[in-house]
Amino acid sequence: MSFPRRPLDVSLDGFRSDVNFDFITAAIAILFSVIVLVLLWVVLFRRARPGRTALYERGMARRHLVLIGALAALFFFGIDGVVLYRGYADLQEGFFKFPTAAERPIEVEVIGQQWSFQFRLPGADGLFNTPDDLLTLDELHVPVGRPIALKMRAKDVIHSLYLPNFRIKQDLIPGTTTRMWFQATQMGTYEFGCAQFCGVSHYKMHGTLQVESPEGFARWLAVEGSAARDRYDPEDREAHWGWTWEEQENR
Ligand SMILES: [Cu+2]
């Protein structure tokens, strides 16, 4: 089952969320229809009419309690149980597992502030807060088919980076570092936004994610990297918000 208005899924793991959403929607729709049909049947065909008394039943007899228990168990294990099982399977398959260094992720630092997202890529030296860092505002460039590892902080209030085409969202919280990862399966330009109401101009807090071919991304890195080195100003303290990654950070 698919809904035409859903944003295009261009991620490795987005289908996991879609499958769960579809399952819950279908299960609730079926349950709702059954309950409405039973209610209609009772109201229309079992009501009092001339020559017929409606039966008033408190539902406390043993057979009623057994029926209620059986239905409750059916719904609990048939819906919640399935979602729990699927969620656990997703965990096991690494949906929520932050990429290790061995998986060679593209590492990105994100700062959220009223009302924009700033992204920092480490550049050729692989280290953050050095002159060749690539800084972008409300625009993130990533290559297709590589894991992207984001570590995020906030300057002022809680923001949330939401990538609808990747079915992921994570808060940026002042005073702590949060993490999120994704992998794109399709090139293109996609929108991201802030998903926490973070002030009067919250609506302005959005930008574009450019998913490029590996060659296109390498070209972008080379061109922007040398431009970044030229632009680097050691006196500009505001621009040096990056930090050094620690393996155990925020586990
Ligand atoms: Cu925000």
List its traits.
251 residues; alpha+beta; five-stranded mixed sheet; 3 helices; 10 strands; elongated; binds copper (II) ion
Can you give a write-up of this model?
The protein has 251 residues and is an alpha+beta fold. The chain is built from 3 helices and 10 strands. The strands form 2 sheets. The protein has a 5-stranded mixed beta sheet with strand order 3-2-1-5-8. The protein has a 5-stranded mixed beta sheet with strand order 4-10-9-6-7. α1 packs antiparallel against α2 (62-92). The protein is elongated and about 95 Å long. The chain starts with 13 loop residues before the first helix and ends in a 20-residue tail after the last helix. 20% of the residues are buried. The mean pLDDT is 90. The structure holds copper (II) ion (CU).
